[in-house]
């Protein structure tokens, strides 16, 4: 098995990123994904304080940033660990030193479970996983056995229940109890609780709709918990929630752990949600730096299209200069128009800062994030943050 | 300037890909981007024969595949070179041995033009570029001078005219002549012709709408050509066209070079176009192999979401098994439903083959393509095709 060597392009790209450290934000070549470290750290502190004040475990979702450095930073600020969605994300972050990782998703492929079991055996990381089928439990046990993982409670297993998303998860109630009982038959596993995440609810614009969806999800969780208690299980940890709804899960007193991810960076899509009363407000901390490379009387065209930022949840917002609207220019271009007639269009060569529509798939397009200290206009590049699990879809 | 070493994840991922060579398609871990080599080669041959029969230069767009291996394959089948959209794409492909590369897009950043000029000096590749501003011409000349690129006609420069896309390009007619005259003042450059691509027209579903758009584009080209001839220029090469419209550009007898890209792989979006009479039909050759990892009575969920395939031009089509419709399951999931009540849903662990909605940004999510010979059901992995310019957005 021969490793294909890294391409010259990737080496050059990362060297170029590294070379910007200590330099002005003006020296960053475009398009580049830039983190406003000051804003990010305020978001980090705010969520840590929120979880602490409400006596909740915080397990941020690292599917969003895919970075071991940021996962460790979250854990240094009170997080018990992180979630990921994919086996190879978990292994990439574990190899880069993240010590507590929960795959909040189902894995059925034997090859993946074998890789994971090897990680459980060899790495100093505590791993967890979600299941929604007996096959998922049995294949996991088989993979751990093949990798000679022995002992008691070597892996945490959460049973996913469908709380309204209509995607993965067993139905609330008895089906979850059946799976918990199957898990309990295997001492190598530990039944760790319920995975209960309502992805769709995160993006309802109207706070009343979000409240309604999470109320139904809470009911599904409470029902399942009651059945588990009746079957002799202890009260399970219920883990879930996202940046769009976590105040609702908190208020329900049903969830014990928050899986918020986007709060760290905040994207344009979340900003389009109408804020709920009393919800903390997070700042945009993730930006695409782009440059105007074509210009006429009607519009300017910047060099960042949807190979630089994901648009499946909506187009980016133009952060700076003010008064511009972004129109889809396809893979490599963004068309910038004046929001109102007569407003100023940027000139050829000018910098344009965008807030991506959706941070998770945007980060996944880039190998590195450039961390800037001191603001986007006058700041300096403080560090290069590696996206360790970029492209780790397996 | 220290290069950041490649992540363990990336090395592991590429090794894993390399390890599949010679093995059955069934052994490919999911999600993976798979090329049906037999279908791709038929597409390749068909387009090469078409261009030859119509006495047209073929310069396929490598922004689609970003692979030096595929660019060389296209050139071995009659292409005069390839196009790209970005400076770093051009340099990545040039360093991997592609000898004729045209950046069919504007570049204004001095840092990029300096990188490019170094490439012109050091690499055995013929480079071309598009311009739509005097600043673009002047900065290019300055960068070539700084890199000590001397001599005559060291770089081909095309003037982009806006033929109806409403994005980049000067207006047809005199503005293009002005730029051609500016280019002609600099012996290091060669005025090579007109860039005339109508991106929007590619995706009109109705062939009559496509015909109308390309008729207007042809008029804009013919007008500009007449003005150039009147100003003493020779008849310029007009380059453009895409997979959705190239029969129309051909029929106009205005274009001399075709920049088709997607014909090699064909995505679900192009397949949704209603075919024009007499247009060659290309086969789907690019697939996402995915696996069912959750299942209930209503639907199955596969492990490929929009971090595995781009959905901004529409959702993927389910190629196999038949009778399924793909619904958006977000970043890491696809929800598969029966197209008609009572149809069979795949079981947990089953393979599902998808045709991506849009090939260009899908390829850009992956480091490698797995080239399969002998079909998706019984074939073997013949080779790993590197996506050399993945993420090269600069």
Detail the topology: elements first, then pairings:
The structure is a homodimer of 394-residue chains.
Chain A: H1 8-19, E1 32-36, H2 37-53, E2 57-58, H3 68-76, E3 82-84, H4 87-95, E4 100-103, H5 110-122, E5 126-131, H6 134-146, E6 155-160, H7 174-184, E7 189-195, H8 207-230, E8 237-240, H9 246-252, E9 257-258, H10 268-272, E10 286-295, E11 300-302, E12 317-320, E13 324-328, E14 334-338, E15 351-355, H11 359-363, E16 368-373, E17 380-386
Parallel strand pairs in A: 1-16, 2-9, 3-4, 4-5, 5-6, 6-7, 7-8, 8-9
Antiparallel strand pairs in A: 1-10, 10-11, 10-15, 11-14, 12-15, 13-14, 16-17
Any key phrases for this structure?
homodimer; 394 residues; alpha/beta; Lyase, Ornithine Decarboxylase, Chain A, domain 1; TIM Barrel; 9-stranded mixed beta sheet; 8-stranded parallel beta sheet; 17 strands; disordered N terminus
Walk me through the structure.
The structure is a homodimer of 394-residue chains. In chain A, helix 4 runs parallel beside helix 5 and helix 5 (110-122) packs across helix 6. In chain A, strands 1, 10, 11, 12, 13, 14, 15, 16 and 17 form a nine-stranded mixed β-sheet that branches. Chain A has two domains: 8-36 and 282-386, Lyase, Ornithine Decarboxylase, Chain A, domain 1, CATH 2.40.37; 38-265, Alanine racemase (TIM Barrel, Alpha-Beta Barrel), CATH 3.20.20.10. The first copy, chain A, contains eleven helices and 17 strands. Helices cover 32% and strands 21% of the residues of chain A. Chain A has helices at residues 8-19, 37-53, 68-76, 87-95, 110-122, 134-146, 174-184, 207-230, 246-252, 268-272, 359-363; strands spanning 32-36, 57-58, 82-84, 100-103, 126-131, 155-160, 189-195, 237-240, 257-258, 286-295, 300-302, 317-320, 324-328, 334-338, 351-355, 368-373, 380-386. With 394 residues, chain A is an alpha/beta fold. The longest helix of chain A is centred in the middle third of the chain and has 24 residues, at 207-230. In chain A, strand 16 and strand 17 form a beta hairpin.
